[in-house]
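Summary of Year 1 activities. Much of the first year was spent building the evaluation harness for sequence design. The harness presents a backbone, in tokenized form, and records the residue chosen at every position. We chose the following record to illustrate the format because it has been used consistently in internal testing since the harness was completed.
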């Protein structure tokens, strides 16, 4: 089984899309899974949820469970399926429940500030 570690991400984190700040948090989590780059998960209450629109996409991870996806909708663009969340994660990764992670790209940046 892939080893998954979750810890409090040090410092303050921000996620931006299209120049707009979508979220900022001192309570982000960092999830490390095997050899994959770490992923920052933002608490849902620290993200501008009004800018997210649930999409039809779902995926299944054998270690974390079923992920629900959201598109980022702002004035200038729509970034489809750019956010995911495990609404009911497996017990081993229960800490990420209520958190959102972002697919980083040219238009979506996750940074420590």
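For this record, the design step produced the sequence shown next.
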């Amino acid at each position: 089984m892939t080893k998954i570690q979750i810890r409090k991400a040090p410092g303050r984190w921000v996620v931006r899309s299209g120049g707009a700040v979508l979220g900022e948090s001192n309570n982000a989590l960092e999830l490390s899974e095997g050899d994959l780059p770490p992923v920052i998960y933002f608490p849902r209450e620290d993200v501008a949820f009004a800018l997210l629109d649930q999409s039809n996409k779902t995926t299944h991870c054998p270690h974390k469970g079923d992920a629900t996806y959201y598109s980022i909708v702002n004035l200038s663009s729509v970034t489809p399926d750019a956010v995911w969340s495990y609404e009911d994660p497996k017990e081993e990764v229960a800490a990420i429940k209520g958190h959102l992670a972002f697919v980083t790209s040219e238009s979506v940046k996750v940074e420590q500030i």
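The radius of gyration is 13 Å. Quantitative recovery figures across the full test set are reported in Table 2.
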